């Protein structure tokens, strides 16, 4: 019998907290069972397996991140919106490194369709409306922004920029300035 009070939601939240503490790759049903002081089998009434747990954490992270970005974007346009969007992603990754890693999990099509992924794409496209891009350039720009933000965040969190000056804050500001300039002067095909 499962321990009273354990639910899929509580396990997902605990798994997300564990991911932030020890890394998303170390989150398993067995590790979560040890955390709660129960046998692995008692969690299987709430979770199918470790992949189900990881998917739930990814969905939670995507939703939290979308809520944070939406709040940051409210009432902003142009470069101000670009900076708010980028900073919300970067701040979330710094505060929740395991959850941010979870948000990168490749989801099966059904889970992806039910996720906040569409909200992320919609918010990115909303930012780009301020730059007057049409298709297919808008799709190219969505991919560019995602690549630059994720790449910078990943390199920074891995310590790749900690060995030299200038500081990462100055570089981040320059990266956002460069993206804004590029989006304003998007090259013709």
How would you characterize the overall build of this protein?
It comes from Streptomyces mutomycini. It holds the Pfam family TetR_C_33. This is TetR/AcrR family transcriptional regulator. Keywords: DNA-binding, Transcription, Transcription regulation. Residues 28-47 bind DNA. This protein is an all-alpha fold and 189 residues long. It contains nine helices and no strands. It has helices at residues 8-22, 29-36, 50-73, 78-95, 97-103, 109-114, 117-129, 137-157, 168-184. The protein is elongated. The protein starts with 7 loop residues before the first helix and ends in a 5-residue tail after the last helix. The mean pLDDT is 93.
Residue ranges: pLDDT <50 for 5 or more in a row? Answer: none
Give the helices and strands as they follow along the chain.
HHHHHHHHH
3D shape: elongated
Report the C-alpha radius of gyration, rounded: 19 Å
Number of distinct beta strands: 0
N- to C-terminal distance: 63 Å
Tally of helical runs: 9
InterPro entries: Homeodomain-like_sf, HTH-type_TetR-like_transc_reg, HTH_TetR, MT1864/Rv1816-like_C, Tet_transcr_reg_TetR-rel_C_sf
Pfam family, one: TetR_C_33
Keywords: DNA-binding, Transcription, Transcription regulation
Organism: Streptomyces mutomycini
List the helices and strands and how they pair.
Layout: H1 8-22, H2 29-36, H3 50-73, H4 78-95, H5 97-103, H6 109-114, H7 117-129, H8 137-157, H9 168-184
